[in-house]
UniProtKB/TrEMBL annotation:
Family: Belongs to the class-I pyridine nucleotide-disulfide oxidoreductase family.
Annotated residues for binding of NAD(+): 182-189, 271
Disulphides: 39-44
Alphabetical list of Pfam families matching this protein: Pyr_redox_2, Pyr_redox_dim
Gene Ontology molecular functions: flavin adenine dinucleotide binding; mycothione reductase [NAD(P)H] activity; NAD(P)H dehydrogenase (quinone) activity
Keywords: Disulfide bond, FAD, Flavoprotein, NAD, NADP, Nucleotide-binding, Oxidoreductase, Redox-active center
EC number: 1.8.1.15
Annotated FAD binding sites: 48, 115, 312
Cofactor requirements of the protein: FAD
Protein name (database record): Mycothione reductase
Naturally occurring in which organism (per UniProt): Amycolatopsis carbonis
Length: 464
């Protein structure tokens, strides 16, 4: 039974830990799937490459308001798909090769199999090709095994077949009609992608709004805009699926009672489950929350000394920049056990790369109300700034919440063009404690650039 100083399970953000400061440690890395994890292979990176392509494809649909008449002649799906994966797949293969064969990694053994704990700090690795299992023990473990798509228990769904974000980007042909179950990030991003490629998209949302975790004004604006592009069914659940000669029939229970929809492909996007169960972390004493996420302390250490966890397996945020931040914390704490650092989750931003883009950091207005936090609020429309005129934007806005006593920003929410970039100075201000007035008037804002949206939103805050 090989014994290691360190075993890392998962090659997403976990893989980034092993740099040249770890050569003194006999290390193993265990990966059951494609090297590089979710973000590189089936997550952030390919989806954003599809979203950018979708933005290009959607341009003719709104160019005429600039006096420019364009027509979308067609989308060559195999070329769209292959441009993206011909770029990404070699990165994953190269990453695996580097760990397996490069002299930098002489101290690292790669186990290309599925790990499962069988006892305290004992991990069994099994292989799909029937090779005998390996059993590894180690002084320290890093659990970086991420999560997987949740699948609802709908009668007939498995029989008719469905996609998750793992498979939908590698379709052989574009379907004519696609039904997406869920109204969150993945639904919002893929609905934009496939609708831009001329697929008829239906979105089935269990609650009364899409992206309902966003600030209420952003969620309702997005839901209103989404309903103009997709067939959005709110307060609805699919209760049965079956295949017939003309397509897949889905029985839907919603405000109009029970009705039947027909579709050609289903994308399930109802959230993700952390892989603590598959990894059986309980067998090594690691505890989990009700959501299944591994419980860690401020140092990213689980209740078992020497077992750290990071990213989607332990973080309810389930975002790549959070997984990367936590990987840097774990890396430091493994190297400096007597001088450990804490993870910083104070101001975790996110963006939804749909159309229009959405970005957010800090408290939503409904959060602030529910927590009894005192706040003032301001809004600035894109339509009220010069660059918004240039873009003919009529629906986007920035919304800010601030502490009336100190002027410190409590939350920022943007829906509109380039929201994911426009929000960055607000994240910086919140992270470094810059108050709204100083931020607005203590620097130049390039005229007439998009960040004037932020300058005006800051100035609109009713602060003394
Ligand atoms: C469609 C999609 C789009 C996304 N877009 C964004 C985005 O735009 N921005 C953003 O910030 N985040 C995005 N995310 C979230 C982001 O991808 C994740 O938060 C991030 O990849 C998590 O990294 P991780 O290292 O924790 O896990 P992962 O990257 O999932 O890595 C875990 C690895 O562990 C392996 N593994 C699992 N179980 C075992 C086992 N038992 N044994 C061995 N190996 C195992 C898996 O195969 C995987 O390679 C997206 C996610 C999805 C699904
Ligand atoms: N741009 C990004 O950063 C990005 C993009 C994609 C995914 N992600 C990450 O991946 C995670 C997963 O994305 P997602 O869209 O699957 O999850 P999500 O949590 O964003 O949305 C899930 C949706 O499914 C609904 N739902 C939950 N259970 C359901 C059920 N049983 N039946 C019907 N509907 C149900 C929820 O109400 C919600 O609308 C996200 O939470 C996010 O952290 C991030």
């Amino acid at each position: 039974m090989p014994h290691y100083d360190l075993v890392v399970v998962g090659t997403g953000s976990g893989n980034s830990i092993l740099d040249d400061r770890f050569t003194h440690l006999k290390t193993a890395i265990v990966e059951k799937g494609a090297f590089g994890g979710t973000c590189l292979n089936v997550g952030c990176i390919p989806t954003k490459m599809f979203v950018y392509t979708a933005d290009v494809a959607a341009t003719p649909s709104h160019s005429s308001r600039f006096g420019v008449d364009q027509e979308l002649k067609g989308v060559r799906w195999p070329d769209v798909r292959d441009r993206i994966f011909d770029r990404i797949d070699p990165i994953s293969v190269g990453g695996a090769e580097y760990r397996k064969s490069h002299a930098d990694n002489d101290h690292v053994d790669v186990y290309a199999g599925e790990g499962r704990f069988t006892g305290m700090k004992e991990l069994r690795v099994s292989y799909s090709d029937g090779r005998p299992d390996d059993v590894l023990t180690a002084d320290r473990f890093v659990l970086a095994a991420g999560g997987r798509a949740a699948v609802p228990d709908i009668p007939g769904l498995a029989e008719v077949g469905f996609h998750t974000s793992e498979s939908i980007m590698r379709l052989d042909v574009l379907p004519k009609r696609m039904t997406i179950l869920g109204g969150g990030y993945i639904a919002a991003e893929f609905a934009h992608v496939f609708a831009s490629f001329d697929v008829e998209v239906t979105v089935i949302v269990r609650s009364g709004a899409m992206l309902r975790n966003e600030d209420e004004d952003v969620s309702s604006r997005f839901t209103e805009l989404a309903a103009k592009r997709f067939d959005v069914r709110l307060d609805s659940m699919v209760v049965n699926a079956r295949r017939e000669s003309t397509g897949i029939k889905l029985d839907l229970e919603g405000p109009a009672g029970t009705e039947t929809l027909e579709t050609d492909a289903i994308l399930v996007a109802i959230g993700r489950l952390p892989n603590t169960d598959v990894l059986d972390v309980a067998a090594t004493g690691v505890t989990t929350m009700a959501s299944g996420h591994a419980i860690v302390d401020d140092y990213q250490e689980t209740v078992v000394p020497g077992i750290y966890a990071l990213g989607d397996i332990s973080s309810p945020y389930e975002l790549k920049h959070v997984a990367n931040h936590e990987a840097r914390v774990v890396q430091h704490n493994l190297l400096h056990p007597d001088d450990r650092i804490k993870a910083d989750h104070r101001f975790v931003p996110h963006a939804v790369f749909t159309s229009p883009q959405i970005a957010s950091v800090g408290l939503t207005e409904q959060d602030a109300r529910a927590r009894g936090v005192s706040y003032v609020v301001s809004k600035q429309d894109y339509a009220g700034i010069a660059y918004g005129w240039a873009m003919e934007d009529t629906t986007g806005f920035a919304k800010l919440l601030a502490d009336p006593a100190t002027g410190q920003l409590l939350g920022a929410h943007i829906i509109g063009p380039q929201a994911s970039s426009v929000i960055q100075p607000l994240i910086q201000a919140m992270s470094f404690g810059l108050d709204a007035r100083t931020m607005a008037r203590g620097q130049y804002w390039i005229h007439p650039a998009m960040p004037e949206l932020i300058e005006n939103a800051l100035l609109n805050l009713p602060l003394n």
